[in-house]
Structures
1.
Amino acid sequence: MNTTPGNPSATLFGTADLRGHTVLVAGAERAARRATARYRAQGAEVIAVATPAGLGQVSAVLGRASLLVAVEDGHPGWKILPALCRERRLLLVREEAAHDSGHVTLVGGGPGSADLVTARGLAALARADVVFYDRLGPYGTVAALAPGAELVDVGKLPGHHKVPQRQIEAMIVEAALAGKSVVRLKGGDPFVFGRGGEEVAACAAAGIPVTVVPGITSAVSVPGSSGIPVTHRGVSRMFTVASGHDPFSEAELKHMAGLGGTIVVLMGVATLPQTVAGLLRHGLDPATPAAIVERGFTDSQRSTVARLDGLVPAAAAAGCASPAVIVIGEVVAVGHDALLSGAVADLAGFPGTAAVSL
């Protein structure tokens, strides 16, 4: 598994409306397959030239082409392309060759906004033959981020997994064994409740190379977008991130209540009553500030703030629903002024609303 690929400055690909334009893609068929698919997806008439010898057969096309894409497939004959482009007054773009063999990249899609995907993640998406994506992360813009790629929705809803995890792993392995460049796009970070470790293990068992591209976890970014820092000097020097998908055990509740610092619960709206009751039962101060931040980094982001002992009725009154991040601790009070002042809109980049009852 490669977590630090050797080319961190990999080319990034923008989107363009190329309808009515002719693009010449120069490179071996397999090496140039992603460039060919991507420019076609952007509306261009794409003429593929697999070898330097083929340039002579498309001389007429050169006169009307807008762009020549040189795919770095290692053939020395392509050295003539810069001079050819100068002569024909053609724009020249160089691109790395697509993976020659099957490869899987786990990409952390961040908290939901496409502009929060890392540069390395965007580059992996642009080169993907197939993308398996979730409902979290930038799922609404996958087609634009991976133009021309096959897109497969394997997202899970609370209590409903339309594609079981083992089947997702089998689909990833099958695509990679077929020689495709596969991206598994997840919300947040692949290794923070993303089952990325299981998918890496499945690929390793099949002998498939895997690269991991980290993402911004919602456990930190979504509270931050509402003005709530998970740590703050003099207030909290630690934070615990837990999955609330299943109810916590008594031992876990006792540990969280007694540890101090900030508690962040992901996927915990359905189990909120059990979580709050258990923390109170094990001695956490009822007056502890708490917040539920829903739909982080979307235009419908909303924060509901209350004392811990009033969080459940406040959530019910507000109709809080997944996806949401629950934050419990004095840091919520630090962000309280931001929630009231309207600074939430500046921090998140979107308008936010707050139901406040501290």
2.
Amino acid sequence: MKRIVIMSAVLAVTMAQASPGAHGPNGEHLDTASATPSAAGLSRLPDGSVNVPMLSQRRLAIRTEIALMSEASAATELPAKVIADPNASGLVQTVVGGKIEAGAQGLPFAGKTVRKGEVLAVVAHHAEPLALSGQRAQLAELRGAREIAQKRVERLKGLEGTVPRKEIEAAQTELASLRARESAIGGGLAAKENVVAPVSGVIASANVVLGQVVESKDVLFEITDPAKVMVEATTADPALAANVSAATIKATPGVRLELIGAGRSLRDGVLPLTFKAVASDGTQQLPIAIGQPVTVIANSKQSVKGFVLPAQAITRNPANEPVVWIKSGAERYIPQPVQYHALDANRIVVTKGLGDENRVVVQGAALIAQIR
């Protein structure tokens, strides 16, 4: 009697560890009579299924859950690129060109925080030799004329009362004009341009070093605010923008996207959609960089029926088909080809290939797929 009780307990534990019989979307059984579990441990059986002992399942942290039919928002994957907010970023360029000199705080580097109006560098302008010699000759001529005009004013002041007042005033006006011309040309010979930050933010890229000679319109620095970033996606469907309810970035769970605008003019055959990137935890740190190519998952206002699973439940078979692993026994897992759509950065919805109430691997599927 005691032996019968023990055997009954073992049978009950085995049935509790096993999952519902694996079946396809139309109720057909996926188990085959030829598939016999191997006692050697981890192994791939002739029918493509995998035998994973219980001890190995614990070591690989295999987790499963019952797949149930439900409704989820239909989603579309869009190619996109991270761009800077035009109101919170800017380029630092020189107007004329010259040799780079350091400012009072030295040259900034990538990652440094700067404020609007802060001097980032100094550009010393250098004219061509022929033009420079002409300016110096003109400056020498003006200096001589100024000295003559200054002596004439002094003589006229000494004769004040005997010469008309208007002659003294005319001489003084001429002297002031020569002084202004001399100062303007003298300042132009050693002119320097202070390159200032157009906005507050972080130096995204620095393209200068001390002594470098830059040309007009060369980009010296790029400044952006890391807390204000946009994502520009493209689509060929003009009606997609009106159906977007939410959006995320694939494989980037910490970022939430808000649609702020959609273009109405085709650009290379597609329409641009502009999203504002917001950190999901409310902080200002976004795990994306300017210029980074990403994939936007745009959730539609329409719903689709399927099985919602974690994104890591999907693997690829040798034919590069997407599959999920179904647990058909205590130690046996069967690969089942499916069709799916991404819902967000962490979830997918299986629309074809999976039956209701199958126990699907939701953690460790990639490890099971590597067993040979």
3.
Amino acid sequence: MTHVAESGSGPRSGADTPSIPSPVPPTTLPTTPPTTPPVTAPVLDQSTREIDKATFVPLDVETPPIGQALTKAAFVRQLQLQPDEADAIRDRHPELAEPLRDLLTPPSFSPAPLSAFAAVPTRALEGYGQAVVALRHERAQETEESARGAALQALQTAVVAAKGLEANTAAPRMGLMNLERLEMTPAGIERGELVATIPLAPQEETAVTYKEWSVQKKEFSSIVTDSLETFSETGVTDNTELAQSTSSQQQHSNQFNITGTVSGGIPVISGSVTSGYTGQDAASQSATDSRKHATTLTQKASTRARQEHKVTITTTTVTGTSQTTTRTLKNPSATNPIRIDYFSLMRKWRVRLYRYGMRQTYDVVLPEPAATMRRPYAELEALKAQLGPFVFNIPHNDITAEVRKGDPEPPTTDPPTPKSPHYLVLADQYDAQVPPPPPDLPPQTYAVETGPLPQGRGVTRMPLNIPAGYEIVNITISGRMTSFAGHLGQFTIEGTTLPFDPFADKVFDPGTVLKRGTDGGDFMAGATGTPVLVLVFDQVSTQSLLLTAEVRPTQAAMERWKFDVWNALYTAAQTAYYAQQQDIAGRIAALEARLNDVDTLTLRREESDEIMKNVLRYLLGGRFPSMPKEVLDAFAAAKVDVAHGTGFEGNTTGPDSTLWTTVRQYEDVVRFVNQAIEWENVVSFLYSYFWDLPESWRFIREIEHPDANRQAFLRAGSARVVLTIRRGWETRWVNFVEHGVIDDPNTPENPSQYWTIAQEIAAYDDRNYPGIPPANPGRAATRLEDAVFTTSTATVGPSTRPVSIPVASSAGFVVGAQVVIDAVHGLEHSQEAQKITRIPDGTHIEVAALDNAHTGSPTAPFPVMQPSEKGELIAEWNEYTPTSGTDIAVTSNLSAIS
């Protein structure tokens, strides 16, 4: 016999000694345990957790020889053909240019309509692209060095366009996406693994300290679910629940299941193998892959949840008193031992995977999806490159008062303004106040004062006072001397070459330069301060001599001036540099704050906008005139502030409405693209930086952002964007991308297999999921029970009148509901949806009409299904996660415990 008692996980007040009944003697135990009917735990549907997911299936079909008008037109726009290039290729390759004469229009002409590209052979465009590449390569080799950069850029553009055309036309772009929902519902509590066992001998008493806790290792501080439409929701739940574990697991699943980072309107995307579109086979393969993906997802989540739950039971033997967390257990039997087992309680989850819709998809590959967002980072890199130590590269010998060749010319004036000395040019460059150089002084004159000259020889010492900072260049002498009567006079200056010859009357012409007697150089040249001249007179009665010293600044004075100017320039440059560095640091801080301090919802919206802009650029052309030049010119003439978007803040509407005609001619295309694509469900796959140009690898790889998703977006070299086509627009979209037209003719002129596939996808979606709301239905939508299914072995239809279909059972079917009759057989349209008009009895269902014939047999009956709004149930399994509860059993049957 097994006795079970509940055990709480919290502390108790006071000692707790449970009453344990005496065990049954072994001789009275039954040989087999009694059989009791199993108790089915209720399923808590009101606590169901839901996760939207999708399975993407690319189609592997043969590429048609014609069509793909959108891809071909995008190639022509990307080629950026110039008029002279079109003429040159026409002369060299007339066989390539003539068939494409009306399509390959230079930018100055009006673009050709999209429909004109549908019938152009792909090979012809590829040949023309190679011809453009060869022509630009040849011209790049012949271009001068100064203009070679633009020529190489044009060559690169042609190479990328040619490679893009080859890649985009080689593989099909059509695919399909199964819209699915993962529902997890609590389905009861079951006994889990054995945690601990406490054996008690007869009459043994022991104290059990019971502790239980749950370690919550939080990988993410919160789970953020951002809606690109209206709100940003932060959900924080109990980590022991499967819903939280699965939500966390999703974030890793994106990295494990696809190459790159995924963003878009559908949280979880699982990929299916590329396969040919064979109706039910492709659906079965994608369903298998989706089940494997969802099962792996929940199993990993529940495994991690179990790893985070820990239970510890410590057993101690005590005597006397016990603490509040201690239970005293005693075996009252004097002969039989007993055993107390502790089990963890596990929460059981019923996991169901529903498929509730299908969408056609169209793939495009976009280069540099975050090109616009990288511009601030390029500015940031340029600003950081300007930070560094102060460097002043003006040498002292570069400071001169002379006019240098190459200095800026002064403004034209009348009379002309002379050029400034070089030191003033430097002062203007660094905005410095500099001292002027030592001025040029006029010649210094000294009159010879000797007083009355003696009869005979006399010597006069004459000091010259040279201004400070100047030196003598040369000394000249002028004047006249006469001798005493009856005598011949003599005169000289010691150290000079003046001859001491007799004279009666001697005249020194002005400008007579004194020379040194030693080497014939200028006398006293380089002398500073107060040099002394020694004048020798003999028999000279009168004299009127004048000495003139030409002076100039000394070399030391010039060096001091240069040093003062250099210091002034250095101080001014350093002050300006540090002010500039502070300004740059402030700009860097402001730019980093603008880039990093952005909420998550805004980041996701910006990324979605960039993806949408790049898709529109691909679909409609890089120079698509969303605002034509004529309108911009009219705004400028009306003095409208177009830079800040404030042109219509007043009561007037601005320029005349006729100026908008250029925009209106594209309205149909713009409206179609925005309506045909479910932009809320567009999914992008980001590829690494090395899918970009090699020259930008270093810059892209070093971009950092605190938000991991934004950093991945910024570092993406290219992005694969899966456009989800809105329900009911499948054939119109094929007409647009294949033939360049946006209407939906019943019989297209050039039908392709894509048109047939689009029809089949639409039919499959309508006939397998009648009455299903659009993608991502709201949580408040009405949910019916699961689908009702039966089979029929009869042969019925077609008929325009009500038809009674014999079925195995009509239980659960409802009058007025739609039923799906038969299954999909390849591309045959045998499956159909009809409305139930009457249920005669338990084995018949009457429908309003039958469009097709349906043949059943005892060995191969055809199905009849009444779908629910939940969709088609393609998988169901159970998962378990731990709870905080613990179960206790006394002498339990261990052999019956798994």
4.
Amino acid sequence: MTVIAVLPNSVSIAPAQHLALGRRFLLVCWTMDGATNAAGPITPSVDGEPVRPPFTTLTIDTGWGGRRVLSILPAPRDPRMPIHFIANNRVIAELRTESAAADLDPAGLLGSLDGAARLRVLRFLFDFACSTPGLHRDPAFAALCRRLVLDRAAEPALLAVRATAGGALLLCAGALSGRFGAISSLVVLSADRMARAPFDACIGPDPAGKGRIAFDMLIDRGLCAPGNLLVVLGANGVACRRFPEEPAGLPTLTDRLNARPDTPATLRHYLLSCLAQRGRRDASAASAVSELQALAPLPRRQAADAKRPIGASLDLAIPTSDGGLFLAGWLHDPHGLAAELVVRTPFGGERRVERFAHRFPREDVAKLYGSTGIDRSGFVLHLPSNPEPAEALQVTAELRLASGGALRLVPPPRPRAHADARAAVLGSLPPRFATPELLETVIGPAVAPLHAAHLATRGEPELVVYGERKAKPAVSVIIPLYRTLEFLRFQIACFATDPAMADAELVFVLDSPEQRDEVVHLLRGFHGLYGLPMLLLVQSANYGYSAANNAGVAAARGNRLLFLNSDVVPDRAGWLPQLVAALEERPGIGAVGPKLLFDDDSLQHAGLYFDRDLQGAWYNHHYFKGLPRDFAAAGCPRSVPGVTGACLLTTRAAFTTAGGFCEDYIIGDFEDSDLCLRIRGQGLDIRYAPSVELYHLERRSIGRHQGYTRGVASEYNRWLHGRRWADRMAELMARDWYDDDEVRPSQAGLVGKRGARKTAQVTR
């Protein structure tokens, strides 16, 4: 940029004075009368070249009608070079730097300025310094700023330190004049530097009732050293406060909030927001967010007034580790007043919902509003997004109305344990409304990360050994235990009185660790009574049927693996060698299963097959279920699509190649057919061995799991199974599963050419 020279003694060029701001910057000041035309930006120039940033300029009116201009800029390399200030391509001021910089005179700098102008000058200095590392870390400049502030407030009032938060933060509090106005900036001045406070302040009413403005703020412990100053810049003034010595025995933030249940929701929300902001880069602050939400959550808030034309509630809000957010609640809006739902997480995430696609009736809401007919006010949603620093336990929401108003909603915190959160999602709607689309787009995306997070908490199970372990057992019998123990004495008694079980290894896996002492004592008694060697694995939590079996296999020593339910009791001795013989009858057999009976001697299982329901979804079925024990077609050994995991014998090689039991299923359902399909995928056959008969008191353990019985876990597992294996199941069920030399169902009084499909009509 080329500047046309103007004579220094020209009356249009104002002489400027300069003050040193630390070692690298100058504060230049000049005055001019109000008639001087200096509109537009003012740019400093040295030797005809514009000064490179950072620099800034402020123009303010004086009390006598003139203008005072302040400019902060880097000091020139050659102190002898004059500095010109240019506006509208004209030099309007000149600084000659032959003389040393003057000391700062607060009276000269701020004199003839009203309160608003003085506030602008201080903000001008602080804002530039906070954004310029070379300046805000300069001890000389920090001292200069302290002098400016203390010139206005020689004895600043002390702040109060209330609590510790997130390890490195303190909660401080103070008060301001009721005329102070909105706080626009907070700056901390230490002896050798200045820094912007990490968070804004939370404003509240004066608890003493004196009409002052109370404020709370989270701030780094390192900034709270005694002697440091907090400069508060507001709409109508500047205030200064001192940090005191940190009191001994400060409570944690959670303890303080628990001790003060009347803490305003605005302060709780502020604390969460600040900790979440810091938690994006600080693991201790992210943990503090979870702790605060778990131990001192925001109070639940819903709009459930039958006298109002619109109501809503978020009953569940469950963020997941992949950034997704599952919502369940209700919206009663017969007049169409709602425009959108806006949901916010503490870490700054925001989701907007304009359409509630999956609705279902809520009898409680219909009763509240006296609705007639079908009131489909219930909803479930899954909102994907990016992962956040930690999984929030609680969110906030606004239901925005078309008129511009809003209803604030606060759901309860999500269950802290991943298993409990998973159960909450599965229990959020009645099973009859769990359509394939809803499972695909809402339930599945929420359940899968919660289930994976739960499984990730596993540690090594506790190992309890009874007797001497066999080095090479003929068969390892894996028996998961969950809640139901009443049939264990009958099962073990049958094992103890069967000589063929002497070569077997018994491996029990307890999936309900709360029963640990009871089961340890029970098995110790059985071992003392019968002398049977046994192994007990105690899982740290309930991780499901698949995980229990996989843990049992990892500890077992046999190359043949028998998976047996704890409610399965043999009909007679010698059954296990017969089952092994069926497995080894010829090469290429990957698994076998026996005939299973109900306690009334009717058939429970004679092989497993697949069929579709009226909606086309695949189900697992058992051949001839409910028919008499001696039903002719159930007495034929043959290949079947699969066998039940209640009693399934396979080899370690086939099991390992299949990848073990798939642990993606919830609690216990469809894992056995999934394993069978994986074994068949190796080109191996699966056989039904009717000569081996056992009683199965079906689903006694799973019936005691509330997470399974009170929700859509079964529908989820069926959907997951069908999504993975639909084509393979269709291919298998297109085959004829009856050999020509065996009795067909049609010969036993049943109708059908394909057998499996037609038999299903009779056996359901």
